[in-house]
Protein backbone atom coordinates (compact mmCIF):
# COMPACT_ATOMS: atom_id res chain seq x y z
CA UNK A 1 0.00 0.00 0.00
CA UNK A 2 2.84 2.35 0.88
CA UNK A 3 4.47 1.70 -2.52
CA UNK A 4 1.18 2.36 -4.35
CA UNK A 5 0.73 5.60 -2.41
CA UNK A 6 4.21 6.74 -3.44
CA UNK A 7 3.52 5.94 -7.10
CA UNK A 8 0.21 7.81 -6.96
CA UNK A 9 1.91 10.79 -5.36
CA UNK A 10 4.66 10.78 -8.00
CA UNK A 11 2.07 10.68 -10.81
CA UNK A 12 0.15 13.52 -9.20
CA UNK A 13 3.29 15.66 -8.91
CA UNK A 14 4.23 14.89 -12.52
CA UNK A 15 0.77 15.94 -13.72
CA UNK A 16 0.80 19.11 -11.63
CA UNK A 17 4.27 20.03 -12.86
CA UNK A 18 3.24 19.49 -16.48
CA UNK A 19 0.41 21.98 -16.23
CA UNK A 20 0.66 25.44 -17.68
CA UNK A 21 0.13 28.46 -15.45
CA UNK A 22 -1.91 31.22 -17.11
CA UNK A 23 -1.54 34.82 -15.97
CA UNK A 24 -4.15 37.25 -17.26
CA UNK A 25 -3.01 40.84 -17.77
CA UNK A 26 -5.16 43.84 -18.52
CA UNK A 27 -3.37 45.80 -21.22
CA UNK A 28 -4.18 49.50 -21.52
CA UNK A 29 -3.00 51.29 -24.68
CA UNK A 30 -3.13 54.67 -26.42
CA UNK A 31 -2.21 53.50 -29.93
CA UNK A 32 -3.28 56.66 -31.83
CA UNK A 33 -0.61 59.36 -31.44
CA UNK A 34 -3.05 62.05 -32.65
CA UNK A 35 -5.78 61.05 -30.19
CA UNK A 36 -4.39 60.14 -26.77
CA UNK A 37 -7.92 60.27 -25.38
CA UNK A 38 -8.75 57.09 -27.33
CA UNK A 39 -7.77 54.47 -24.75
CA UNK A 40 -7.94 50.78 -25.69
CA UNK A 41 -8.15 48.05 -23.08
CA UNK A 42 -8.06 44.29 -23.57
CA UNK A 43 -6.83 41.17 -21.85
CA UNK A 44 -3.73 39.21 -22.77
CA UNK A 45 -2.43 35.85 -21.56
CA UNK A 46 1.02 34.94 -20.33
CA UNK A 47 1.10 31.13 -20.30
CA UNK A 48 4.11 29.69 -18.47
CA UNK A 49 5.49 26.14 -18.36
CA UNK A 50 8.90 24.93 -17.14
CA UNK A 51 10.16 25.02 -20.75
CA UNK A 52 8.73 28.25 -22.17
CA UNK A 53 6.20 31.05 -21.90
CA UNK A 54 3.92 32.60 -24.53
CA UNK A 55 2.31 36.04 -24.44
CA UNK A 56 -0.66 36.78 -26.73
CA UNK A 57 -4.08 38.39 -26.90
CA UNK A 58 -7.11 36.74 -25.34
CA UNK A 59 -9.08 37.77 -28.45
CA UNK A 60 -6.61 35.81 -30.59
CA UNK A 61 -7.81 32.55 -29.07
CA UNK A 62 -11.46 33.63 -29.26
CA UNK A 63 -11.09 34.54 -32.95
CA UNK A 64 -9.38 31.20 -33.64
CA UNK A 65 -12.28 29.43 -31.95
CA UNK A 66 -14.84 31.30 -34.06
CA UNK A 67 -12.95 30.56 -37.27
CA UNK A 68 -12.63 26.87 -36.38
CA UNK A 69 -16.37 26.66 -35.73
CA UNK A 70 -17.01 28.48 -39.02
CA UNK A 71 -14.96 26.01 -41.05
CA UNK A 72 -16.60 23.06 -39.32
CA UNK A 73 -20.11 24.35 -40.02
CA UNK A 74 -19.88 25.23 -43.68
CA UNK A 75 -17.12 27.74 -44.25
CA UNK A 76 -17.78 31.22 -45.60
CA UNK A 77 -21.56 30.77 -45.66
CA UNK A 78 -21.68 30.66 -41.86
CA UNK A 79 -19.04 33.38 -41.32
CA UNK A 80 -20.16 35.87 -38.66
CA UNK A 81 -18.40 39.13 -39.60
CA UNK A 82 -20.00 41.08 -36.76
CA UNK A 83 -18.75 38.58 -34.19
CA UNK A 84 -15.23 38.70 -35.63
CA UNK A 85 -15.22 42.51 -35.63
CA UNK A 86 -16.08 42.42 -31.93
CA UNK A 87 -12.95 40.36 -31.31
CA UNK A 88 -10.51 42.69 -33.05
CA UNK A 89 -7.28 43.22 -31.12
CA UNK A 90 -4.50 45.76 -30.85
CA UNK A 91 -2.22 42.90 -29.81
CA UNK A 92 -1.71 41.09 -33.09
CA UNK A 93 1.67 39.66 -32.17
CA UNK A 94 2.74 36.77 -29.97
CA UNK A 95 5.96 36.46 -27.98
CA UNK A 96 7.61 33.22 -26.90
CA UNK A 97 10.40 33.00 -24.33
CA UNK A 98 12.54 29.85 -24.21
CA UNK A 99 13.52 29.18 -20.60
CA UNK A 100 16.67 27.20 -21.39
CA UNK A 101 18.20 29.38 -24.09
CA UNK A 102 16.69 32.66 -22.81
CA UNK A 103 15.76 33.50 -26.41
CA UNK A 104 12.77 35.75 -27.05
CA UNK A 105 10.93 35.12 -30.33
CA UNK A 106 8.49 37.70 -31.69
CA UNK A 107 5.81 36.80 -34.27
CA UNK A 108 3.53 39.16 -36.16
CA UNK A 109 1.46 39.02 -39.33
CA UNK A 110 2.29 41.33 -42.21
CA UNK A 111 -0.13 40.88 -45.08
CA UNK A 112 -0.73 37.18 -45.65
CA UNK A 113 2.41 35.87 -43.93
CA UNK A 114 3.79 35.67 -40.38
CA UNK A 115 7.14 37.32 -39.75
CA UNK A 116 9.26 36.12 -36.86
CA UNK A 117 12.49 37.40 -35.38
CA UNK A 118 14.69 36.78 -32.35
CA UNK A 119 14.93 39.79 -30.03
CA UNK A 120 18.51 41.08 -30.09
CA UNK A 121 18.37 43.76 -27.36
CA UNK A 122 18.96 42.76 -23.73
CA UNK A 123 16.84 44.18 -20.93
CA UNK A 124 19.05 45.98 -18.45
CA UNK A 125 17.06 46.45 -15.25
CA UNK A 126 17.83 48.77 -12.37
CA UNK A 127 16.30 47.21 -9.26
CA UNK A 128 15.31 49.78 -6.65
CA UNK A 129 14.74 49.36 -2.92
CA UNK A 130 11.15 50.69 -3.04
CA UNK A 131 8.46 48.14 -2.20
CA UNK A 132 4.67 48.22 -1.94
CA UNK A 133 1.71 45.88 -2.25
CA UNK A 134 -0.37 45.33 -5.38
CA UNK A 135 -3.37 43.10 -4.78
CA UNK A 136 -2.22 40.10 -2.77
CA UNK A 137 1.43 40.47 -3.71
CA UNK A 138 4.32 42.29 -2.10
CA UNK A 139 6.18 43.89 -4.99
CA UNK A 140 9.48 45.66 -5.62
CA UNK A 141 10.23 48.41 -8.12
CA UNK A 142 12.54 48.14 -11.14
CA UNK A 143 13.24 50.40 -14.11
CA UNK A 144 14.58 49.95 -17.64
CA UNK A 145 14.71 51.61 -21.04
CA UNK A 146 13.52 49.54 -23.97
CA UNK A 147 12.23 50.24 -27.46
CA UNK A 148 12.51 54.01 -27.03
CA UNK A 149 10.46 54.09 -23.82
CA UNK A 150 11.29 54.28 -20.12
CA UNK A 151 9.53 51.52 -18.21
CA UNK A 152 8.73 50.97 -14.54
CA UNK A 153 7.94 47.44 -13.40
CA UNK A 154 6.80 45.99 -10.09
CA UNK A 155 7.77 42.36 -9.53
CA UNK A 156 6.98 39.83 -6.83
CA UNK A 157 8.96 36.92 -5.45
CA UNK A 158 5.74 35.48 -4.01
CA UNK A 159 5.37 33.53 -7.27
CA UNK A 160 8.13 31.18 -8.55
CA UNK A 161 8.52 32.77 -12.01
CA UNK A 162 11.08 35.18 -13.48
CA UNK A 163 8.88 36.36 -16.32
CA UNK A 164 6.43 39.05 -17.33
CA UNK A 165 4.13 40.39 -20.03
CA UNK A 166 5.31 41.39 -23.51
CA UNK A 167 9.11 40.97 -23.86
CA UNK A 168 9.70 41.79 -20.20
CA UNK A 169 11.46 39.33 -17.92
CA UNK A 170 14.80 38.73 -16.28
CA UNK A 171 13.85 40.08 -12.86
CA UNK A 172 14.04 37.89 -9.72
CA UNK A 173 10.26 37.42 -9.76
CA UNK A 174 7.08 37.75 -11.81
CA UNK A 175 6.18 41.21 -13.10
CA UNK A 176 2.80 42.19 -11.65
CA UNK A 177 2.66 45.63 -13.25
CA UNK A 178 4.62 47.45 -15.98
CA UNK A 179 4.02 50.91 -17.45
CA UNK A 180 5.91 53.45 -19.53
CA UNK A 181 6.61 56.95 -18.26
CA UNK A 182 4.30 58.60 -20.83
CA UNK A 183 1.29 56.59 -19.66
CA UNK A 184 0.76 55.19 -23.16
CA UNK A 185 1.03 51.49 -22.26
CA UNK A 186 0.49 49.50 -19.09
CA UNK A 187 0.21 45.83 -18.13
CA UNK A 188 -1.62 44.89 -14.92
CA UNK A 189 -1.88 41.34 -13.58
CA UNK A 190 -5.54 40.53 -12.91
CA UNK A 191 -5.64 36.83 -12.06
CA UNK A 192 -3.99 33.48 -12.67
CA UNK A 193 -5.05 29.86 -12.96
CA UNK A 194 -3.83 26.56 -14.37
CA UNK A 195 -4.63 25.16 -17.82
CA UNK A 196 -3.84 21.72 -19.22
CA UNK A 197 -1.60 22.86 -22.07
CA UNK A 198 -0.75 25.71 -24.41
CA UNK A 199 -3.65 26.32 -26.81
CA UNK A 200 -3.14 25.55 -30.48
CA UNK A 201 -3.12 28.77 -32.53
CA UNK A 202 -4.34 28.90 -36.11
CA UNK A 203 -1.67 29.94 -38.56
CA UNK A 204 -2.26 30.94 -42.15
CA UNK A 205 0.30 31.67 -44.83
CA UNK A 206 4.05 31.20 -44.61
CA UNK A 207 6.28 31.86 -41.62
CA UNK A 208 9.18 34.10 -42.65
CA UNK A 209 12.23 34.25 -40.40
CA UNK A 210 14.04 37.61 -40.46
CA UNK A 211 16.27 39.87 -38.43
CA UNK A 212 14.51 42.47 -36.29
CA UNK A 213 15.69 45.32 -38.52
CA UNK A 214 14.29 43.56 -41.59
CA UNK A 215 10.95 43.10 -39.86
CA UNK A 216 10.78 46.87 -39.24
CA UNK A 217 11.58 47.50 -42.93
CA UNK A 218 8.88 45.07 -44.04
CA UNK A 219 6.34 46.81 -41.80
CA UNK A 220 7.15 50.14 -43.44
CA UNK A 221 6.99 48.60 -46.89
CA UNK A 222 3.57 47.12 -46.11
CA UNK A 223 2.21 50.55 -45.15
CA UNK A 224 3.52 52.02 -48.40
CA UNK A 225 2.34 49.22 -50.69
CA UNK A 226 0.07 46.70 -48.91
CA UNK A 227 -1.06 44.99 -52.10
CA UNK A 228 2.47 43.78 -52.85
CA UNK A 229 2.18 41.63 -49.73
CA UNK A 230 -1.20 40.25 -50.76
CA UNK A 231 -0.29 39.28 -54.34
CA UNK A 232 3.43 38.61 -54.57
CA UNK A 233 4.55 38.30 -50.94
CA UNK A 234 6.55 40.86 -49.02
CA UNK A 235 10.10 39.64 -49.41
CA UNK A 236 12.56 36.92 -50.22
CA UNK A 237 13.60 35.88 -46.71
CA UNK A 238 13.81 32.33 -45.38
CA UNK A 239 10.39 30.68 -45.45
CA UNK A 240 9.43 27.97 -42.98
CA UNK A 241 6.43 25.85 -43.94
CA UNK A 242 3.75 26.72 -46.47
CA UNK A 243 4.22 26.20 -50.18
CA UNK A 244 6.83 28.95 -50.41
CA UNK A 245 5.16 30.58 -53.40
CA UNK A 246 2.59 33.27 -54.06
CA UNK A 247 -1.06 32.38 -53.91
CA UNK A 248 -3.75 33.88 -56.06
CA UNK A 249 -1.36 35.42 -58.56
CA UNK A 250 -2.30 38.21 -60.91
CA UNK A 251 -3.24 41.79 -60.32
CA UNK A 252 -6.33 42.54 -58.20
CA UNK A 253 -9.03 44.93 -59.47
CA UNK A 254 -8.24 48.63 -59.05
CA UNK A 255 -11.20 49.25 -56.72
CA UNK A 256 -10.12 46.39 -54.45
CA UNK A 257 -6.56 47.73 -54.35
CA UNK A 258 -7.83 51.20 -53.45
CA UNK A 259 -10.04 49.89 -50.64
CA UNK A 260 -7.18 47.80 -49.30
CA UNK A 261 -4.76 50.73 -49.31
CA UNK A 262 -7.29 53.02 -47.62
CA UNK A 263 -7.95 50.43 -44.92
CA UNK A 264 -4.23 49.94 -44.26
CA UNK A 265 -3.64 53.71 -44.04
CA UNK A 266 -6.57 54.04 -41.64
CA UNK A 267 -5.20 51.22 -39.49
CA UNK A 268 -1.74 52.83 -39.57
CA UNK A 269 -3.18 56.10 -38.26
CA UNK A 270 -4.97 54.27 -35.46
CA UNK A 271 -1.69 52.56 -34.55
CA UNK A 272 0.70 55.51 -34.95
CA UNK A 273 1.92 55.24 -31.35
CA UNK A 274 3.41 51.72 -31.17
CA UNK A 275 4.71 50.15 -28.00
CA UNK A 276 8.23 50.26 -29.46
CA UNK A 277 9.25 53.67 -30.80
CA UNK A 278 12.63 52.54 -32.01
UniProtKB/TrEMBL annotation:
Keywords from the UniProt entry: Signal
UniProt-annotated stretches for the region Disordered: 235-278
InterPro entries associated with the record: GLPGLI
Transmembrane spans: none
Stretch forming the signal peptide: 1-18
Pfam families on file: Porph_ging
Compositional bias ranges of the Basic and acidic residues kind: 255-270
Top-level taxonomic group: Bacteria
Compositional bias annotation for Gly residues: 235-251
Protein name: GLPGLI family protein
Source organism: Chryseobacterium endophyticum
Amino acid sequence: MKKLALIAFALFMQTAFAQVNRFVYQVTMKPDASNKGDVKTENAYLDISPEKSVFYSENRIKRDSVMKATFQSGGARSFNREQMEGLRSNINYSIEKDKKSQKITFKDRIGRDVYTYEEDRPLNWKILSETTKIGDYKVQKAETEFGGRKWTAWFTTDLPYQDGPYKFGGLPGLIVKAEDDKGDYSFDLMKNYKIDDFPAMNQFGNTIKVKRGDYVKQQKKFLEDPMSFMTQGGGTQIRIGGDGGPRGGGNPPADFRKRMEERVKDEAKKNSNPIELQ
